[in-house]
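Same chain as my last thread, 77 residues:
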Amino acid sequence: MERRNERLISSFATALRRRRKAAGLSQEELAFKTDLSTSYISLLETKNRQPTLTVLAAICEQLDVSMGDFITDIEST
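reply #2:
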């Protein structure tokens, strides 16, 4: 079974970048707030990494969006 879904990864990256910018945060600021590295946030936004559920929850919390709403963004991208 293929575990890498390029469309899904691309949609996640687009939704993350859009939500982060809408929140007025730089990659560095989001990284600090989520206790992640700036390079990891960059890797997520450039389609080079997939987040765990724990990372997704931390990102959503800092972007003030529910995981459900974030997933809806991903599905509509």
